[in-house]
Amino acid sequence: MRILDIGKPGHVRTPTYVRHKTGTIERFCGLFENPEDKAYGRWGLPPIPLYRVQFRQDDIWPDYDGAPGDVLEIEIYDHWLAPAGEDS
């Protein structure tokens, strides 16, 4: 999956360093209220899917000099995800 940059202002749970990067869904975590909406006093409903996405470290940081198999896992909400190769 590709992580989108949907241009939401303020603090969001999707780090800038994974936006536009491609990872693999490691697992489905469940349905949750949207914390980005709740932070602004809205209900955060309907619940949205949350996924754990795995990235190779050297795909995020090209100059990464750790072990070749090192990965980073981040939980990303569905509205930030697109199939690999899509930007919107």
SSE layout and pairings?
Blueprint: E1 2-3, E2 24-32, H1 35-38, E3 48-56, H2 57-60, E4 71-77, E5 81-82
Antiparallel strand pairs: 1-5, 2-3, 3-4
Q: Which CATH first-tier class would you pick? A: Mainly Beta
Mean pLDDT: 91
Termini Cα gap: 12 Å
**What spatial form do the alpha-carbon principal axes imply?**
elongated
Broad structural category: mainly beta
> What are the segments in which pLDDT stays under 50 over at least 5 consecutive residues?
none
Strand content: 25-35%
Strand order of the largest sheet: 2-3-4
Number of helical segments with 4 or more residues: 2
Q: Describe it for me?
A:
Helix content is 9%, strand content 33%. The protein has 2 helices and 5 strands; from the N terminus they run ββαβαββ. The radius of gyration is 14 Å and the shape is elongated. The relative contact order is 0.31.
Which structural traits does this protein have?
2 helices; three-stranded antiparallel sheet; 33% strand; elongated; 88 residues; mainly beta
Quick structural overview:
With 88 residues, this protein is mainly β. The protein contains two helices and five strands; from the N terminus they run ββαβαββ.
